[in-house]
# Entry
Amino acid sequence: MADRRRIVAENVAGEFFVDETCIDCDACRQLAPEVFKEAATYSFVHAQPETAEAERNALRALLACPTGSIGTLHANRAREVKQDFPIEIEDGVYYCGFNSPKSFGGNSYFLRHPEGNWLIDSPKFLPPLVERFEQMGGVTNIFLTHRDDVAEASKYARRFSSRRIIHRKELSSQPESEMVIDGTEPVAIAPKFLVIPTPGHTRGHCCLLYDHKFLFTGDHLWWSRDAQSLSAGRDVCWYSWPEQTDSMEKLVNVSFEWVLPGHGQRVKLEADEMRRQLVALVGRMR
# Structure
């Protein structure tokens, strides 16, 4: 629970605040950019919500915050928006919310599918989200992009008897996974689902392409709000920047419209513009 005695200095006066426990994961800025902004190493309230929509977004951010660093000075009305999660992005693809501190606040996604639903990376294991997943048909598959964002995947796998999918070089983070990906070549694991190994951020990092439209990118690729371009981070590359650059180049000839990252802003672009952005990004990375 956020502590009003530890409010960061940049917060504007009003109902919502951020305290010093913020880990700068960006979740609140994605959900409510009209309310939250980034300081050097944390988020802060730059404007109190002035509309019902802005307030709802701020309450969603409060619930999604992995460290409980967002608070309100008076009655906490966050329970009013619990049922908003997961939030649909497009065509049966949802943002889960309830980001986990075990993945440094990484985003996770739920994909509703007639042959069995998918969870991509893991949120917190909490009753409101578990109940919503049950209502939506459960979780048949859990795809894990890499070791950093497994969070509470094991609990979801046990609850729903899910099949976990992960690359062998990340397997130590989920050793009981039911399906293991090998090598560096793309692997079709179900109709319309293609695993694309993208080593670099970690040794066995993988992206998941769904229906030639949605690319779940883990910590490989995201949209920079500041630069208004696709981006990757050398300062958060834990294994090999040259390999991450080569992996990024592999995506140039993959057609998709959505980048859905674990960290960073999601974005939808026309496929041709996505390719142009990727070519430019690879050039900057090299």
